[in-house]
């Protein structure tokens, strides 16, 4: 296990708003003994649990092995926005990278990812404070509206339901004059992400999936025509394996951890705000994240708290500085709030890639994995899980929306990880230009 990952997994679940307000997770426990299944899934975040659900719906025997508990990693710590786009890439970037057919298929999968999340929520009656009133990406500079226009045109060409708002429409939707227009995706929204992960686990268990918490996978190797996964107190033999650990990936599979850069991101919630403020701030109740590289993001909780956060360049005195930076950001964007009191703050890692694309891998015959969601994991991971389930039940790689690529470990990975926060300085410079 990497030196970075061990303290993360040894630490308790953070004292987040999600942990304080989430539904109780289902009963799970460590694997004790040896089992045989069709597919073993490593990781009980949204990707792994979506994979398990979609497999079990087809009658496949599945075991999910989780080092801690469902939603413990990034899936239970993020902002909870359900966003049907990638963070920095548009459909044209995907077709340039993978060709027209595969790039368009991936883009359509991304564009339909938020709708898939809310379909699962409705189908399994998941209690996760799900709100599907849209996701909005406002332009932080006038020149970014041209990019928004192009983005809307590209998604519409693929059949996605998106719209372009001018400055006045954006002000009405968001309750502020801070931005200059926006792209809106009505299928997006927001959830309590830890509740969603726990409810996905509950749905999977109801379908017959075995979920083993507190069960880190120690090794993986060939077992005849299948694979054997060893854990501290048992083992799993499976025909196929899905690795779904993203930013919390360890050294289980050679090179996979070093192909992404874990970035620490802070999230926080205000104390509950008065109803009058709730009516004037984000009155549309959409999830909001703007066009900055140093992202400004906001959304409401079910109990009238505003959720926001930030990423820092320096690690010294990080939590206090993150709180102050976020409070200042809220004051600037929504001056009607005044000086908000922060009730809770917490952090988690997201997995970044050098090319800003999510990476999908056929690691060996019968072993697949997905990493590098670049801050878009909730909707994207759910859709990826469905595709990985299709592959595990015999759909050929050429028919999937996922472009499988070789694992490419980053040179000087540990050094890159150590100084990755400095990249935020470059993004902030770009944010000052059109």
List keywords for this structure.
434 residues; globular; 14 helices; eight-stranded mixed beta sheet; oxidoreductase activity; alpha/beta; 18 strands; 33% helix
How would you portray this structure in words?
The protein has 434 residues and is of the alpha/beta class. Helix content is 33%, strand content 22%. The chain is built from 14 helices and 18 strands. It has helices at residues 5-10, 17-21, 46-56, 91-98, 100-111, 113-123, 144-157, 167-174, 193-206, 275-280, 318-333, 377-392, 413-418, 423-431; strands at residues 33-42, 62-65, 81-82, 135-138, 163-165, 182-185, 189-190, 210-212, 219-223, 226-231, 234-243, 261-270, 287-289, 297-300, 306-310, 342-352, 359-364, 367-371. The strands form 3 sheets. Strands 1, 2, 8, 9, 10, 11, 17 and 18 form an 8-stranded mixed β-sheet that branches. Strands 5-6-4-13-14-15-12-16 form an 8-stranded mixed β-sheet, with helices on both faces. Helix 3 packs parallel to helix 9 and helix 6 packs across helix 12. The longest helix has 16 residues, at 318-333. The protein is globular and about 65 Å long. 51% of the residues are buried. The mean pLDDT is 96. InterPro entries: FAD-dep_OxRdtase, FAD/NAD-bd_sf. Its EC number is 1.-.-.-. Residues 38-390 form the FAD dependent oxidoreductase domain. This is NAD(P)/FAD-dependent oxidoreductase. One of its GO terms (molecular function) is oxidoreductase activity.
């Amino acid at each position: 296990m990497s030196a970075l990952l061990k303290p993360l997994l040894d630490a308790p679940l953070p004292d987040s708003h999600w942990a304080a307000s989430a539904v109780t997770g289902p009963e799970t426990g460590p694997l004790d003994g040896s089992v045989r299944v069709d597919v073993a899934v490593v990781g009980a975040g949204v990707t792994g649990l979506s994979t398990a659900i979609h497999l079990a719906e087809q009658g496949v025997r599945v075991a999910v092995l989780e080092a801690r508990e469902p939603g413990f990693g990034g899936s239970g710590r993020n902002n909870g926005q359900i966003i049907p786009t990638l963070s920095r890439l548009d459909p044209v970037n995907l077709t340039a990278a993978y060709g027209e057919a595969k790039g368009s298929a991936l883009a359509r999968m991304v564009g339909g990812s938020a709708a898939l999340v809310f379909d699962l929520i409705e189908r399994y009656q998941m209690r996760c404070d799900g709100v599907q009133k849209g996701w909005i990406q406002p332009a932080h500079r006038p020149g970014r509206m041209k990019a928004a226009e192009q983005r809307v045109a590209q998604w519409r060409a693929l059949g996605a339901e998106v719209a372009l708002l001018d400055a006045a429409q954006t002000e009405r939707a968001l309750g502020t004059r801070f931005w200059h227009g926006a792209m809106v995706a009505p299928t997006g929204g927001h959830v309590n992400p830890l509740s969603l992960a726990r409810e996905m686990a509950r749905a999977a268990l109801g379908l017959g999936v075995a979920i083993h918490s507190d069960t880190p996978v120690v090794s993986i190797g060939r077992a005849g025509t299948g694979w054997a996964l060893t854990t501290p107190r048992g083992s799993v033999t499976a025909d196929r394996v899905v690795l779904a650990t993203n930013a919390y990936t360890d050294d289980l599979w050679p090179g996979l951890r070093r192909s992404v850069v874990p970035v620490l991101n802070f999230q926080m919630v205000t104390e509950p705000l008065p109803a009058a403020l709730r009516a004037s701030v984000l009155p549309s109740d959409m999830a909001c994240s703007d066009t900055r590289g140093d992202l400004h993001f906001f959304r409401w909780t079910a109990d009238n708290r505003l959720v926001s956060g930030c990423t820092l360049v320096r690690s010294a005195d990080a939590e206090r500085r993150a709180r102050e930076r976020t409070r200042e950001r809220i004051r600037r964007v929504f001056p009607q709030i005044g000086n908000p009191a922060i009730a809770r703050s917490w952090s988690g890692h997201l997995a970044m890639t050098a090319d800003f694309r999510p990476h999908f891998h056929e690691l060996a015959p019968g072993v697949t994995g997905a990493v590098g969601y670049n801050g878009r994991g909730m909707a994207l991971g759910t859709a990826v899980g469905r595709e990985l389930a299709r592959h595990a039940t015999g759909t050929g790689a050429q028919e999937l929306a996922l472009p499988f690529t070789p694992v490419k470990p980053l040179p000087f990975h540990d050094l890159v990880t150590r100084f990755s926060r400095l990249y935020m300085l470059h993004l902030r410079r770009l944010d000052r230009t059109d």
